[in-house]
Task: structure prediction
Amino acid sequence: MNEMGVALELLGVGMVTVFIILALVVIIGNLIIRFVNKYMGEDVKSQIKKSAGNSTLEINPKKFAAIVSAVNLVTKGTGHVTNVRKL
Result:
């Protein structure tokens, strides 16, 4: 029974270690994302101008602004429109 106890102890320690490491990865990743979005985020107006210049399809600026606003609202500021094209 001693060997079984050691095996279960190793199993428990390993699972706790993996859980702690994964939790740290998630927490540090979220902190990095928040930092980048807060201090290095692009302004929506500059994003509209930049994306409008790259677009091969002529689109009404009001429609493009609505698309950018919708993406910004749905993704809570994390998504960016890089190109608009007709499918």
